[in-house]
Amino acid sequence: MTPNPLSNYNVEEIRKDFPIFNQKIYGKPLTFLDSGASAQKPLRVLDAIQKSYSEEYANIHRGVYYLSQVGTQKYEDARVKIQNFINAKSHKEIIFVRGATEAINLVAQTWGRKFLESGDEVVLSRLEHHSNIVPWQILRDEKDIVITVAPIDDKANFLFDEFEKLLSEKVKLVAITHISNALGTITPIKDIIKAAHKVGAKVLVDGCQAVPHMRVDVQELDADFYVFSAHKLYGPTGVGVLYAKEDLLDAMPPYQGGGDMIRSVTFEKTVYNDLPHKFEAGTPHIAGGIGFGAALDYVEDLGFHNIGQYEDRLLDYALGKIQEVKGLRLIGQADNMAGIISFTMDLAHPHDIGTILDQDGIAIRTGHHCAQPVMDFFDIPSTARASLGLYNTEQDIDRLVDGLHKVNRIFS
Q: What is the pTM of this model?
């Protein structure tokens, strides 16, 4: 007898770590299928944040007293956890930011402003989130750089051969997603980086959707910049990471000025602090950084192999079940994809789908997902999107499918 492929992952026990699943929505169990936008938080993270504020709070990096020392140690411990999590060479390569959006803007406004010149090219892909498009357009308007776009096919596969045709000595940067937030496409990121480096280009990777689902090794990838946010990785909002190679950070000017990013200040001259603090002006999100560290502890204890294997199998189950729904069209079915399912229905607008599902306690995302160029490619204004997390179950998928059948009944 073939064993249940999901039987080795005790998701019901894992769900007990997330207090939000104890409630009901409109009298129905919460079915949360929007982790791609922001994941729920386990007790370990909530407790770490609560303790930071209630028992250990003080400003960090400045005080010689006990509470400040405790906070500083825990915050810097979180930086080292992130270093180890993505296998960076040094903790100096880990810059705390408000999120991936700020990280990309930081690179654009420091490295980009200093090193890009008129006529230089930046290659993006059709899959990008607005956060990895708009900062480069702002820089284009200021510096007269050229933006080119690597294409996808009608299944949302990244067309690597076409991407290679865009590469030349004029290309100074490739800025690209690791996993599409709108469609779940996993790009061949290691091959992309290798090809870009052959023409002397640097590579920035938007890893927001990748780090919750797979092990990322920035040294193995040889990424120049890699960005992600805590809140998609079961951590708090308002904190994220810019990873960059140390030599690049050394060459980049500060992003913001203020306290903690300085070594000395006079009215004549400022001497900047060492890495990583050179890019971290002002009081940081202390509890957020500590909560981020707790989130990493949590997923590491579960084991990324276990999480990835479970989510892959759950995605297969979901793709099989959802196609039973009459008039449903999957948008993007890449050969290599993560736990994100975008779709439309013949009889209902995505916003109507989301509203009806909500009445049954089912939370999905509807809209363009901050990826309008993807929507334009498929000639649609928006999709409904179900995105999986480590706490989702087959029952969640069954409730979703039942809800979509209900949508069809209502609109027929």
A: 0.95
Same domain, 184 and 171: yes
Scored b (16 or more CB within 10 A) or e, 293-322 reads bbbbbbbeebebeebbebbbbbbebbeebb
Domain presence at residue 37 = no
- The pair of three-digit structure tokens given for residue 86, joined into one six-digit string: 């993505």
Owner of token pair 């284009």? 140
The catalytic residue among 370, 373, 381, 398 is 370
How many whole angstroms separate alpha carbon 331 and alpha carbon 280?
40
**Same domain, yes or no, for 329 and 272?**
no
- For the question of residue 208 being annotated catalytic, the response is no
Give residue-wise pLDDT tens across range 371-402: 899 999 899 999 999 999 999 999 999 999 99
Q: For residue 95, report the phi and psi dihedrals to the nearest 5 degrees.
A: -105, 125
The C-alpha atoms of residue 301 and residue 196 are separated, in whole angstroms, by 35
Encoding tokens for residue 118? 């008129």
Half-sphere exposure of 35 (CA within 13 A, CB side): 27
Q: pLDDT tens digits for 233-269?
A: 999 999 999 999 999 999 999 989 988 888 899 999 9
380 half-sphere exposure, CB direction, 13 A CA radius: 24
Range of the domain at 325: 11-32+303-411
Task: Please say if the pLDDT value at position 2 is more than 60.
Answer: no
